[in-house]
Amino acid sequence: MSYNFGFIITRHVNSEQTNRYWNQNVKLIRTLYPHRKIVIIDDNSNPDFVKADFNYKHLTIIQSEYPGRGELLPYYYYSKNKWFDKAIIIHDSVFIHNRIPFETFNMPVLPLWHFSSFTLDNEANNIRIAKSLTHGTKLIPYLTSKNTQLLQQWNGCFGAQSFITHDFLTSITTKYNLHNLLHVVHNRSDRCSLERIFGLIFCLEYNNLTAIKSAFGDIHNASYGYTYNEYINLLNKHNKVIRKVVKVWTGR
Question: Do the domain assignments include residue 252?
Answer without folding.
Answer: no
